[in-house]
Design a protein that fits this description.
- Helices cover about 25% and strands about 25% of the residues.
- The protein has an eight-stranded mixed β-sheet with strand order 1-2-3-17-7-20-5-4, covered by helices on one side.
- The chain is built from eight helices and 20 strands.
- The N and C termini lie far apart (about 50 Å).
- Helix 1 links the parallel strand 2 and strand 3.
- With about 325 residues, the protein is an alpha+beta fold.
- Its cofactor is Fe(2+).
- GO terms for molecular function: dioxygenase activity.
- This is TauD/TfdA family dioxygenase.
- Keywords: Antibiotic biosynthesis, Dioxygenase, Iron, Oxidoreductase.
Length: about 325
Amino acid sequence: MPTSPPVPMLDVDLQPGKPPILRADSTGDAVSWAAEHRDAVRAVVAEHGSVLVRGLGLADQAGTAAVFRRLAAGLMTEKEAFASRRTYADGVYSSSKWPPHQPMCMHHELSYTLEFPGLMLFACLSAPDVGGATALADAPTVLGALPTDLVERFLREGWLLTRNYNEEIGASLTDAFGSEARGAVESYCRAAAIEFEWQPDGGLRTWQRRSAVVRHPVTGRRCWFNQIAFLNEWTLAPEIREYLVDIYGADGLPFNTRYGNGAPIGEDTVQLLNEVYQSHTVREPWQAGDLTLVDNVRTAHSREPYEGPREVLVAMADAVRLADCSPTVEVITR
């Protein structure tokens, strides 16, 4: 019987404190290089959880989108966004709009949804003058470093994401649900196991409980997979948190996280989570033209503060269902 040709080996640079780095010789044709080396690049991601490809010379949106499509099984349309993005092409976005001086701490993209990307792709078209790295952390390692009693509580209860949508701050209904029509929003929420309540002023409040730990759909390894720290009030800069609480009240923040039973998560716990992430973070400053692929279940990512213009394109791909990852808390759809 005919056999498939072997996947060519790529020379990957592995250094402490840095993600795996692959230096590509694309001879000016990044799309052809991506098509030829797709399986080898994906094999590196499967082995290490991520890879930074340097030397492709990505310089424009159209060429980057073509490279994304060569490397991914299928690009996803983002739903339930927490911040607005610019759409460049189907499934190709800008990075989330977030103040440059504020960090976006470690998280797994869309880990509060029932279907999330298995693969994240990031391409740097313009590198900032200072900072701005997309840093990474290995989720099984982070899980193993967390206190046992804390992990056991999250295994039992999961985590709760609360959101408040209004016309003044945060993601809009259209950003999150693709429509402002109440009927469409309610249908989405029911199908996605999201509890909801319309407010007297027309705003929307939602709650959704999810597992904090899942098993990788391919390897079966347990991963700390959530956005508990990133979307918690105590990760916000103190002056921003105080302002938002003063304007909207403690229950009116654009987003917040709690234990799965609804109990608040203390500032000390959020600080602990961020410290564990930080102690297991790897980073490499962006250079213009770089491409990074990240296994979204195995590897958390962040965005560090920066100065100067920064343009990073993002794609979410290879959809994974929560139901296929052995969730530890029950999700009920109505």
